[in-house]
């Protein structure tokens, strides 16, 4: 597995998807966006097509195009480009995962399917396993956001033995306010060296105390970038 030399950690920008007044994706500004993050904010890791990027409101074609543009414009400038490939359809999610690998993304992330919801840990892991297998050379991250998916399976429960089922699993984007669950994720998986990326801006300081190794959010600012580097 050709995983990146550097672990995904620190500040990760959850990128917006720029739009024109007519509702079309404004690809022309993504290059400027990359330069802004790198030069003005000191941030070199991004999370594309997630909640902030409204990925699930885009068509599959649009999601592919957005991912391609970020990877292309970020080449030799960004350290890691992680693409969210979650979808209600397993086949669509697999297609997006394969595409992410083909264009040279550095990792993929997946939320739980949220219409016909998985009601047990095993059902959810089987879904995630099928998506991860579509891009076996890419690090795989689970995107835990129960407030939007309605899937209440605790992250701590999901992580128990997950690498036995998904060998490419590298970490968790935890976007929930349940700090007890998050703390147990960290405490019970220290030996695995997972990336524990916190996604609720308002609770970030608490999460850092509990062992978060990074943060994915739309809050990125010069002040926080400096704080993390120190």
TrEMBL record:
Q: Which family does it belong to?
A: Belongs to the DapA family. NanA subfamily.
Q: Which GO terms describe its molecular function?
A: N-acetylneuraminate lyase activity
Query: Which EC number(s) does the record attach to this protein?
Result: 4.1.3.3
Q: State the pathway, as annotated in the record.
A: Amino-sugar metabolism; N-acetylneuraminate degradation
PANTHER family assigned: DIHYDRODIPICOLINATE SYNTHASE, N-ACETYLNEURAMINATE LYASE
Q: What class of enzyme is it?
A: lyase
Which Gene Ontology cellular component annotation is one that this UniProt entry carries?
cytoplasm
Q: Which residues form a coiled coil?
A: none
One Pfam family matching this protein? DHDPS
Looking up SMART domains in the UniProt record yields: DHDPS (SM01130)
Assembly state and interactors? Homotetramer.
Q: What is the residue range of the signal peptide feature?
A: none
Key word ATP-binding present: no
Primary location class: cytoplasm
What species was this sequence derived from? Mandrillus leucophaeus
Q: Where does it live in the cell? A: Cytoplasm
What reaction gets catalysed by this protein? aceneuramate = aldehydo-N-acetyl-D-mannosamine + pyruvate
Keywords on record: Carbohydrate metabolism, Cytoplasm, Lyase, Schiff base
KW Cytoplasm (keyword) present: yes
What is the name listed in the Swiss-Prot or TrEMBL entry for this protein? N-acetylneuraminate lyase
